[in-house]
Amino acid sequence: MKKIISLLLVVFMVVSFAACGTKPTTDENNGDDVAATLKFGMGIVASYGDAKDADGDTNGECKAETTAVAVLLDDAGKIVDIAIDTTEAKAAWTSEGVASATEEVKTKYELGTAYNMAAAINYGPQNDRNGDGKVLEWFEQIDAFVATAKGKTLDEIKAFVGEDTYTTGDLAAAGCTISVGSIMAALEEAVKNAAASEATAEDTVKIAFATSVENTDATEEKEGSVEFEETIVAAVTDKDGKVVVAKTDCAQIKVTFDTKGVATVDTAAEIKTKLDLGTDYNMAAYGKKHDGSDGAVKEWFEQAAAFDAALVGKTASEFASLADADGKGTGDLATAGCTIGISDMIKAADKAAK
Considering the entire predicted model, what is its pTM? Predict the structure, then answer.
Protein backbone atom coordinates (compact mmCIF):
# COMPACT_ATOMS: atom_id res chain seq x y z
CA MET A 1 0.00 0.00 0.00
CA LYS A 2 2.83 2.38 0.89
CA LYS A 3 4.48 1.64 -2.46
CA ILE A 4 1.27 2.53 -4.33
CA ILE A 5 0.89 5.80 -2.41
CA SER A 6 4.54 6.69 -3.08
CA LEU A 7 4.13 5.96 -6.78
CA LEU A 8 1.00 8.10 -7.00
CA LEU A 9 2.83 10.91 -5.21
CA VAL A 10 5.70 10.79 -7.72
CA VAL A 11 3.28 10.83 -10.68
CA PHE A 12 1.43 13.79 -9.15
CA MET A 13 4.69 15.72 -8.68
CA VAL A 14 5.81 15.06 -12.29
CA VAL A 15 2.47 16.16 -13.72
CA SER A 16 2.41 19.25 -11.51
CA PHE A 17 5.97 20.20 -12.53
CA ALA A 18 5.17 19.75 -16.23
CA ALA A 19 2.07 21.88 -15.87
CA CYS A 20 4.03 24.62 -14.13
CA GLY A 21 6.63 24.60 -16.89
CA THR A 22 4.13 24.84 -19.74
CA LYS A 23 3.50 28.26 -21.23
CA PRO A 24 -0.21 29.12 -20.80
CA THR A 25 -2.14 29.77 -24.00
CA THR A 26 -4.89 31.66 -22.21
CA ASP A 27 -4.66 34.89 -20.29
CA GLU A 28 -5.66 34.00 -16.73
CA ASN A 29 -7.05 37.48 -16.15
CA ASN A 30 -9.61 37.69 -18.91
CA GLY A 31 -9.67 34.33 -20.66
CA ASP A 32 -8.32 35.67 -23.96
CA ASP A 33 -5.96 33.50 -25.99
CA VAL A 34 -2.31 34.47 -25.65
CA ALA A 35 -0.37 34.14 -28.90
CA ALA A 36 2.85 32.16 -28.66
CA THR A 37 5.97 34.24 -29.17
CA LEU A 38 8.53 33.41 -31.84
CA LYS A 39 12.29 33.51 -32.26
CA PHE A 40 13.67 36.19 -34.58
CA GLY A 41 16.95 36.05 -36.44
CA MET A 42 18.87 37.57 -39.34
CA GLY A 43 21.77 36.24 -41.38
CA ILE A 44 23.98 38.01 -43.92
CA VAL A 45 26.47 36.59 -46.44
CA ALA A 46 28.64 38.88 -48.58
CA SER A 47 31.24 37.92 -51.17
CA TYR A 48 33.22 39.23 -54.13
CA GLY A 49 32.74 38.09 -57.69
CA ASP A 50 35.58 37.84 -60.19
CA ALA A 51 37.64 41.01 -60.76
CA LYS A 52 38.56 42.13 -64.29
CA ASP A 53 41.40 44.55 -65.07
CA ALA A 54 40.82 47.61 -67.27
CA ASP A 55 42.48 47.24 -70.68
CA GLY A 56 42.09 50.65 -72.29
CA ASP A 57 39.02 49.68 -74.30
CA THR A 58 36.86 48.49 -71.44
CA ASN A 59 36.74 49.42 -67.78
CA GLY A 60 37.90 47.15 -65.02
CA GLU A 61 35.15 45.84 -62.79
CA CYS A 62 34.31 43.70 -59.80
CA LYS A 63 30.92 42.74 -58.43
CA ALA A 64 30.06 42.23 -54.79
CA GLU A 65 26.95 40.35 -53.71
CA THR A 66 25.27 40.65 -50.32
CA THR A 67 22.41 38.33 -49.38
CA ALA A 68 20.28 38.80 -46.27
CA VAL A 69 17.64 36.53 -44.76
CA ALA A 70 15.39 37.18 -41.76
CA VAL A 71 13.20 34.56 -40.09
CA LEU A 72 10.56 34.01 -37.45
CA LEU A 73 10.70 30.52 -35.92
CA ASP A 74 8.36 28.62 -33.66
CA ASP A 75 9.44 26.42 -30.75
CA ALA A 76 9.83 23.44 -33.09
CA GLY A 77 12.21 25.37 -35.33
CA LYS A 78 9.66 25.67 -38.13
CA ILE A 79 9.70 28.84 -40.20
CA VAL A 80 6.60 30.94 -39.58
CA ASP A 81 7.73 33.85 -41.76
CA ILE A 82 10.82 34.59 -43.84
CA ALA A 83 12.20 37.50 -45.89
CA ILE A 84 15.03 37.33 -48.44
CA ASP A 85 16.83 39.91 -50.60
CA THR A 86 20.15 40.44 -52.35
CA THR A 87 22.19 43.33 -53.74
CA GLU A 88 24.61 42.96 -56.61
CA ALA A 89 26.83 46.05 -56.58
CA LYS A 90 29.35 46.62 -59.38
CA ALA A 91 32.54 48.65 -58.99
CA ALA A 92 34.18 49.97 -62.17
CA TRP A 93 37.31 51.95 -63.03
CA THR A 94 39.34 53.09 -66.03
CA SER A 95 42.80 51.97 -67.19
CA GLU A 96 44.15 55.15 -65.51
CA GLY A 97 42.74 54.09 -62.15
CA VAL A 98 39.86 56.56 -62.15
CA ALA A 99 36.77 55.25 -60.39
CA SER A 100 33.67 55.27 -62.58
CA ALA A 101 30.37 56.58 -61.34
CA THR A 102 28.33 53.80 -59.76
CA GLU A 103 24.70 53.41 -60.70
CA GLU A 104 22.15 53.49 -57.90
CA VAL A 105 22.33 50.15 -56.14
CA LYS A 106 18.94 48.46 -55.89
CA THR A 107 18.24 45.02 -54.51
CA LYS A 108 17.23 42.26 -56.89
CA TYR A 109 13.75 42.27 -55.38
CA GLU A 110 13.44 46.03 -55.84
CA LEU A 111 14.50 45.69 -59.47
CA GLY A 112 11.67 43.26 -60.14
CA THR A 113 11.33 42.49 -63.84
CA ALA A 114 14.16 44.96 -64.57
CA TYR A 115 16.60 42.40 -63.19
CA ASN A 116 15.66 40.56 -66.39
CA MET A 117 16.35 36.97 -65.42
CA ALA A 118 13.53 35.46 -67.49
CA ALA A 119 14.70 37.15 -70.70
CA ALA A 120 18.33 36.03 -70.39
CA ILE A 121 18.34 33.45 -73.18
CA ASN A 122 21.72 32.01 -72.30
CA TYR A 123 21.20 32.01 -68.56
CA GLY A 124 21.55 28.25 -68.51
CA PRO A 125 19.42 25.08 -68.77
CA GLN A 126 20.05 24.36 -65.09
CA ASN A 127 17.35 26.93 -64.32
CA ASP A 128 14.66 24.95 -66.12
CA ARG A 129 14.81 22.21 -63.51
CA ASN A 130 11.04 21.70 -63.49
CA GLY A 131 11.09 20.99 -67.26
CA ASP A 132 8.35 23.37 -68.36
CA GLY A 133 10.67 25.58 -70.42
CA LYS A 134 9.91 28.61 -68.27
CA VAL A 135 12.33 30.49 -66.02
CA LEU A 136 10.71 32.78 -63.49
CA GLU A 137 12.04 36.24 -62.67
CA TRP A 138 14.33 36.42 -59.62
CA PHE A 139 11.69 37.96 -57.35
CA GLU A 140 9.19 35.29 -58.41
CA GLN A 141 11.71 32.57 -57.59
CA ILE A 142 12.23 34.11 -54.16
CA ASP A 143 8.46 34.23 -53.63
CA ALA A 144 8.41 30.52 -54.49
CA PHE A 145 11.24 29.85 -52.01
CA VAL A 146 9.43 31.78 -49.27
CA ALA A 147 6.12 29.99 -49.86
CA THR A 148 7.81 26.59 -49.81
CA ALA A 149 9.93 27.35 -46.72
CA LYS A 150 7.04 28.37 -44.48
CA GLY A 151 6.10 25.59 -42.10
CA LYS A 152 9.41 23.77 -42.61
CA THR A 153 12.58 23.49 -40.57
CA LEU A 154 16.03 24.36 -41.88
CA ASP A 155 16.85 20.68 -42.31
CA GLU A 156 13.66 20.10 -44.29
CA ILE A 157 14.58 22.93 -46.66
CA LYS A 158 18.14 21.63 -47.00
CA ALA A 159 16.68 18.38 -48.33
CA PHE A 160 15.54 20.32 -51.43
CA VAL A 161 19.01 21.65 -52.27
CA GLY A 162 21.57 19.60 -54.16
CA GLU A 163 25.34 19.56 -53.68
CA ASP A 164 25.62 21.94 -56.66
CA THR A 165 23.48 24.46 -54.67
CA TYR A 166 20.64 24.19 -57.20
CA THR A 167 17.18 23.28 -55.94
CA THR A 168 15.33 19.98 -56.20
CA GLY A 169 11.99 18.60 -55.05
CA ASP A 170 9.37 21.01 -53.78
CA LEU A 171 11.55 24.10 -54.28
CA ALA A 172 12.22 23.35 -57.95
CA ALA A 173 8.61 22.33 -58.54
CA ALA A 174 7.45 25.65 -57.09
CA GLY A 175 9.59 27.53 -59.65
CA CYS A 176 12.69 28.35 -57.59
CA THR A 177 15.36 26.87 -59.86
CA ILE A 178 18.30 29.22 -59.26
CA SER A 179 21.43 28.47 -57.27
CA VAL A 180 20.56 29.11 -53.63
CA GLY A 181 23.97 28.68 -52.03
CA SER A 182 24.16 32.19 -50.59
CA ILE A 183 20.52 32.14 -49.55
CA MET A 184 20.97 28.87 -47.67
CA ALA A 185 24.15 30.14 -45.97
CA ALA A 186 22.33 33.31 -44.84
CA LEU A 187 19.28 31.28 -43.78
CA GLU A 188 21.45 28.96 -41.71
CA GLU A 189 23.04 32.00 -40.05
CA ALA A 190 19.61 33.51 -39.36
CA VAL A 191 18.38 30.31 -37.72
CA LYS A 192 21.56 30.01 -35.65
CA ASN A 193 21.24 33.64 -34.49
CA ALA A 194 17.50 33.47 -33.77
CA ALA A 195 16.61 34.64 -30.27
CA ALA A 196 13.43 34.95 -28.24
CA SER A 197 11.30 37.96 -29.14
CA GLU A 198 7.84 39.41 -28.64
CA ALA A 199 6.88 38.62 -32.25
CA THR A 200 3.95 36.32 -32.93
CA ALA A 201 2.46 34.59 -35.97
CA GLU A 202 0.23 37.64 -36.40
CA ASP A 203 3.28 39.75 -37.28
CA THR A 204 5.29 40.13 -40.51
CA VAL A 205 9.04 40.12 -41.07
CA LYS A 206 10.67 42.19 -43.82
CA ILE A 207 14.24 42.99 -44.77
CA ALA A 208 15.62 46.07 -46.54
CA PHE A 209 18.89 47.57 -47.75
CA ALA A 210 20.28 51.10 -47.99
CA THR A 211 23.52 51.31 -49.98
CA SER A 212 25.99 54.18 -50.04
CA VAL A 213 29.07 54.34 -52.30
CA GLU A 214 32.39 56.15 -51.88
CA ASN A 215 34.80 56.40 -54.85
CA THR A 216 38.52 57.23 -54.61
CA ASP A 217 40.80 57.49 -57.66
CA ALA A 218 44.17 55.73 -57.62
CA THR A 219 47.38 57.72 -57.20
CA GLU A 220 51.05 56.74 -57.17
CA GLU A 221 50.92 56.83 -53.39
CA LYS A 222 47.64 55.06 -52.81
CA GLU A 223 45.34 52.52 -54.46
CA GLY A 224 42.01 53.65 -55.80
CA SER A 225 38.86 52.16 -54.37
CA VAL A 226 35.12 51.81 -54.64
CA GLU A 227 33.60 51.13 -51.24
CA PHE A 228 30.04 49.95 -50.79
CA GLU A 229 28.40 50.27 -47.40
CA GLU A 230 25.39 47.98 -47.27
CA THR A 231 23.16 48.84 -44.32
CA ILE A 232 20.56 46.15 -43.69
CA VAL A 233 17.57 46.25 -41.37
CA ALA A 234 15.23 43.37 -40.64
CA ALA A 235 12.04 44.47 -38.92
CA VAL A 236 9.00 42.63 -37.60
CA THR A 237 5.85 44.74 -37.62
CA ASP A 238 2.39 44.18 -36.20
CA LYS A 239 -0.95 44.76 -37.91
CA ASP A 240 -0.72 48.49 -37.12
CA GLY A 241 2.72 48.85 -38.70
CA LYS A 242 4.49 49.20 -35.36
CA VAL A 243 7.88 47.56 -34.97
CA VAL A 244 7.88 44.62 -32.59
CA VAL A 245 11.57 43.76 -32.93
CA ALA A 246 14.36 44.78 -35.32
CA LYS A 247 17.96 43.97 -36.19
CA THR A 248 20.45 46.25 -37.96
CA ASP A 249 23.77 45.28 -39.54
CA CYS A 250 26.19 46.66 -42.10
CA ALA A 251 28.68 45.18 -44.58
CA GLN A 252 31.54 47.35 -45.79
CA ILE A 253 32.81 46.03 -49.12
CA LYS A 254 35.92 47.60 -50.65
CA VAL A 255 37.20 47.01 -54.20
CA THR A 256 40.71 48.33 -54.95
CA PHE A 257 42.78 48.97 -58.10
CA ASP A 258 45.99 50.74 -59.14
CA THR A 259 46.85 53.60 -61.52
CA LYS A 260 47.10 51.18 -64.45
CA GLY A 261 43.59 49.86 -63.91
CA VAL A 262 44.76 46.55 -62.48
CA ALA A 263 42.47 45.10 -59.82
CA THR A 264 44.27 44.65 -56.51
CA VAL A 265 41.32 43.41 -54.46
CA ASP A 266 41.56 39.96 -52.90
CA THR A 267 38.32 38.45 -54.16
CA ALA A 268 38.80 35.40 -51.92
CA ALA A 269 38.84 37.54 -48.77
CA GLU A 270 36.12 36.93 -46.19
CA ILE A 271 33.70 39.83 -45.79
CA LYS A 272 32.47 40.19 -42.22
CA THR A 273 29.62 42.46 -41.23
CA LYS A 274 30.04 45.01 -38.46
CA LEU A 275 28.05 42.82 -36.07
CA ASP A 276 30.26 39.86 -36.95
CA LEU A 277 33.35 41.96 -36.23
CA GLY A 278 32.04 42.99 -32.82
CA THR A 279 34.77 44.70 -30.81
CA ASP A 280 37.22 44.09 -33.67
CA TYR A 281 35.46 46.86 -35.61
CA ASN A 282 37.16 49.01 -32.99
CA MET A 283 34.86 52.02 -32.94
CA ALA A 284 35.31 52.64 -29.22
CA ALA A 285 39.09 53.04 -29.59
CA TYR A 286 39.00 55.42 -32.55
CA GLY A 287 35.54 56.95 -32.55
CA LYS A 288 34.68 60.44 -31.41
CA LYS A 289 31.35 61.88 -30.48
CA HIS A 290 29.93 63.83 -33.40
CA ASP A 291 29.72 67.01 -31.31
CA GLY A 292 33.46 66.83 -30.59
CA SER A 293 32.97 66.34 -26.87
CA ASP A 294 34.98 64.00 -24.71
CA GLY A 295 33.56 60.81 -23.35
CA ALA A 296 33.28 57.12 -24.15
CA VAL A 297 32.03 56.13 -27.58
CA LYS A 298 30.24 52.80 -27.70
CA GLU A 299 31.17 50.04 -30.13
CA TRP A 300 29.19 49.91 -33.38
CA PHE A 301 27.23 46.82 -32.38
CA GLU A 302 26.18 48.51 -29.15
CA GLN A 303 25.05 51.62 -31.03
CA ALA A 304 23.12 49.47 -33.51
CA ALA A 305 21.41 47.67 -30.62
CA ALA A 306 20.32 51.04 -29.21
CA PHE A 307 18.92 51.97 -32.63
CA ASP A 308 17.02 48.68 -32.86
CA ALA A 309 15.53 49.24 -29.41
CA ALA A 310 14.46 52.76 -30.39
CA LEU A 311 12.49 51.41 -33.36
CA VAL A 312 10.28 49.21 -31.21
CA GLY A 313 6.74 50.56 -30.82
CA LYS A 314 7.20 53.07 -33.65
CA THR A 315 5.84 53.16 -37.19
CA ALA A 316 7.98 54.14 -40.19
CA SER A 317 6.61 57.69 -40.07
CA GLU A 318 8.21 58.18 -36.65
CA PHE A 319 11.75 57.03 -37.49
CA ALA A 320 12.95 60.40 -38.79
CA SER A 321 12.66 61.86 -35.28
CA LEU A 322 15.54 59.64 -34.16
CA ALA A 323 18.12 61.73 -36.06
CA ASP A 324 19.23 65.36 -35.81
CA ALA A 325 19.80 67.70 -38.75
CA ASP A 326 23.21 66.09 -39.37
CA GLY A 327 21.73 62.60 -39.53
CA LYS A 328 23.20 61.58 -36.15
CA GLY A 329 21.35 59.90 -33.29
CA THR A 330 19.62 62.42 -31.07
CA GLY A 331 17.48 62.70 -27.94
CA ASP A 332 16.86 59.46 -26.08
CA LEU A 333 18.73 57.55 -28.77
CA ALA A 334 21.90 59.59 -28.23
CA THR A 335 21.49 59.21 -24.48
CA ALA A 336 21.33 55.45 -25.01
CA GLY A 337 24.71 55.65 -26.73
CA CYS A 338 23.83 55.78 -30.44
CA THR A 339 25.68 58.88 -31.62
CA ILE A 340 26.80 57.75 -35.09
CA GLY A 341 25.28 58.73 -38.42
CA ILE A 342 22.03 56.80 -38.82
CA SER A 343 20.66 58.17 -42.10
CA ASP A 344 21.11 54.87 -43.95
CA MET A 345 19.80 52.95 -40.95
CA ILE A 346 16.63 55.02 -41.07
CA LYS A 347 16.31 54.57 -44.85
CA ALA A 348 16.58 50.80 -44.53
CA ALA A 349 14.29 50.67 -41.49
CA ASP A 350 11.72 52.81 -43.29
CA LYS A 351 11.55 50.31 -46.17
CA ALA A 352 11.53 47.31 -43.85
CA ALA A 353 8.62 48.67 -41.80
CA LYS A 354 6.34 49.46 -44.74
Answer: 0.88
